[in-house]
Amino acid sequence: MDKVKAVQRFFRDFTFPRETLRKLGGLQTVLPKRTRWNTQYSCLENFAKNHTIYLDTAKDVKAKTPPEISDILTDLYFYQRVTDLMKKMAPVTCAITKTLGQDLEKLDLAIFQTANLRNAWIKPSLPLFALHIYSIREGLPTIFRERGQVWLAKKNPLYESVQLKLEAGDSNYFVKRLMNKEILRGELALTSSQWWDIMGSQMENKLPIGFAKLAKELMMLPASTSGMERCFSTMGIIISKTRNRIEIEKASKLCMIYRTLNCGRLEDKDIDLS
């Protein structure tokens, strides 16, 4: 591999060989990268396809080809070894490509599902804040408060009336002692879902049917998709770092794993062909 890279660097770094390669219709030189799978195979393939042009260019006096480069290019046995190595590497590169393709499909699906979750969460998150006993007086922007009220009104017009009474702090409508600051603040304060659970049980006949249950369920939803987004971001960082640590010498292991996972399918194909 070092000899192949030496030839590739010569035709990449020096002006006359590089321009001659371009004029004769050769492929742009490819060098392998330690953290990018299949570039070793691409480098060998590039060398094999450009070999004839490399050989003709190296013979030109203007190229000032070093003796060690000329020896590599004129050694037909070396060229044969390169092509043989490519044949051995082909199944590995194919397995890696398929594995990466499957991973990308899974990633696309994950992104699609995340978008669905985001769309599902945005609307309920607005009435969540509108009914949240602690944040209701913090002052949602008017546009968001109105969207939350519209969402509730579509469920039941009476739901919006309850929300407006809660926003006004109407202790004549709600259980008065549950509206006390001592209940709503401090170390022993109830969570918003606990508050609605207790309020619903004590105002069972006063609240619209299903309202307390809906409010409690809303309080248990995530307020935004930021938590999910952070999970995917962390997962992406971990996957990238792990991938970059895996170099070409581990590709054979990946190929073996891929074949093992698909051995049943491959054996079935062999049986069908026999």
Automatic annotation (TrEMBL):
Pfam families per the UniProt record, alphabetical: Dimer_Tnp_hAT
Official protein name in the record: HAT C-terminal dimerisation domain-containing protein
InterPro entries: HATC_C_dom, RNaseH-like_sf
Domain of life: Eukaryota
GO molecular function: protein dimerization activity
Organism per entry: Folsomia candida (Springtail)
Domain HAT C-terminal dimerisation: 189-259
